[in-house]
């Protein structure tokens, strides 16, 4: 066999091999590659979709956080107002109680003053009687002169 015959036979075998490969081997490989490309494209699309959903979810979370912050701030402001109101009520009750105690103390002081005046009048009347006894050097009957002593008490 000559080199030309070998070369022709190798070309024929190569063409048969190429034809066989094109007919039976290449379509499953191309289909597998196409399927893989489709899966990759679907995966990338799913990743993009997940990324956009994550972004939307983050935005919803931020909105909820802002809403929660606003509600918390409103609750804090309400609690502060309520605390201020309670303090004001306590102050007013304390003022009322202080006024009641002050009025009671004034009434008690007035009553003590009246009692002290009465005791002082009686003492002054007794001293006046003793003084009159000593001046006159005779005994004065307190029962007889009770009305006179009562007038003296009221004048004092």
Automatic annotation (TrEMBL):
Tell me where it mainly resides: membrane
| Domain of life of the organism encoding this protein | Bacteria
InterPro entries from the UniProt entry: ATP_synth_B-like_membr_sf, ATP_synth_b/b'su_bac/chlpt, ATP_synth_F0_bsu_bac, ATP_synthase_B_chain
Q: CDD domains in the record, alphabetically?
A: ATP-synt_Fo_b
Q: What's one Pfam family the UniProt record gives for this protein? A: ATP-synt_B
- What membrane topology does the annotation report for this chain? Single-pass membrane protein
- Protein localization: Cell membrane; Endomembrane system
Alphabetized, the UniProt keywords read:
ATP synthesis, Cell membrane, CF(0), Coiled coil, Hydrogen ion transport, Ion transport, Membrane, Transmembrane, Transmembrane helix, Transport
User: Any coiled-coil ranges, and where?
Assistant: 44-122
Membrane-spanning residues: 6-26
Q: So what does this one do?
A: Component of the F(0) channel, it forms part of the peripheral stalk, linking F(1) to F(0). The b'-subunit is a diverged and duplicated form of b found in plants and photosynthetic bacteria.
Family, according to the entry, reads as follows: Belongs to the ATPase B chain family.
Quaternary assembly = F-type ATPases have 2 components, F(1) - the catalytic core - and F(0) - the membrane proton channel. F(1) has five subunits: alpha(3), beta(3), gamma(1), delta(1), epsilon(1). F(0) has three main subunits: a(1), b(2) and c(10-14). The alpha and beta chains form an alternating ring which encloses part of the gamma chain. F(1) is attached to F(0) by a central stalk formed by the gamma and epsilon chains, while a peripheral stalk is formed by the delta and b chains. F-type ATPases have 2 components, F(1) - the catalytic core - and F(0) - the membrane proton channel. F(1) has five subunits: alpha(3), beta(3), gamma(1), delta(1), epsilon(1). F(0) has four main subunits: a(1), b(2) and c(10-14). The alpha and beta chains form an alternating ring which encloses part of the gamma chain. F(1) is attached to F(0) by a central stalk formed by the gamma and epsilon chains, while a peripheral stalk is formed by the delta and b chains.
What's the protein called, per UniProt? Answer: ATP synthase subunit b
Which organism is this entry from?
Caenimonas terrae
**Taxonomic classification:** Bacteria, Pseudomonadati, Pseudomonadota, Betaproteobacteria, Burkholderiales
